[in-house]
């Protein structure tokens, strides 16, 4: 959630305003928060329950929970998002020097890649990222499928004979 809120929080910190560019991230964060509360049982005040999404229910129908519980779930989802946003803001403010470097690079070039970020901010604190080229991944997946297809299934006749022998003993 914090990663998705990073763009919105950095706009607010750097430019003192938020644009509509972060709207999709906010929609995703809201969906994650509601899923945590309504589907994954990750909220103590709501409990270990899992309600289906309204889209999954299909047509018009009754909710499997009361209006009071819906209000509580709304409140909990908002609280999760607010805590994540505050945490994201704190993280960005603690690293404001790096945020300013990155913001200036984005204003100058509009798009930065991994190498640009590493040149600006230094190497990642937990070691370099392992970059997998898309083509390499596709080839690896194809190779896995080829190997699985090449392996013959165990012969059925042997298994049946062994089962018969076991039953006679």
Note down, in words, how this protein is organized.
It is a single chain. The protein has 169 residues and is an all-alpha fold. It folds into two domains: 2-94, Peptidase M41 (Methane Monooxygenase Hydroxylase, Chain G, domain 1, Up-down Bundle); 134-168, no CATH class. It contains eight helices and no strands. Helix 1 packs across helix 4 (67-94) and helix 2 packs across helix 4. The longest helix is centred in the middle third of the chain and has 28 residues, at 67-94. It is flat and about 55 Å long. The relative contact order is 0.09. The model has no long low-confidence stretch (mean pLDDT 81). Its cofactor is Zn(2+). Residues 140-169 are annotated as: Disordered.
Write the layout of secondary structure elements.
Elements: H1 2-15, H2 23-38, H3 54-57, H4 67-94, H5 96-109, H6 114-121, H7 134-150, H8 156-168
Helix pairs in contact: 1-2, 1-4, 2-4
Region (Disordered): 140-169
Cofactor: Zn(2+)
Protein name: Paraplegin
Write a brief structural summary:
Keywords: ATP-binding, Hydrolase, Metal-binding, Metalloprotease, Nucleotide-binding, Protease, Zinc. The protein contains 8 helices and no strands.
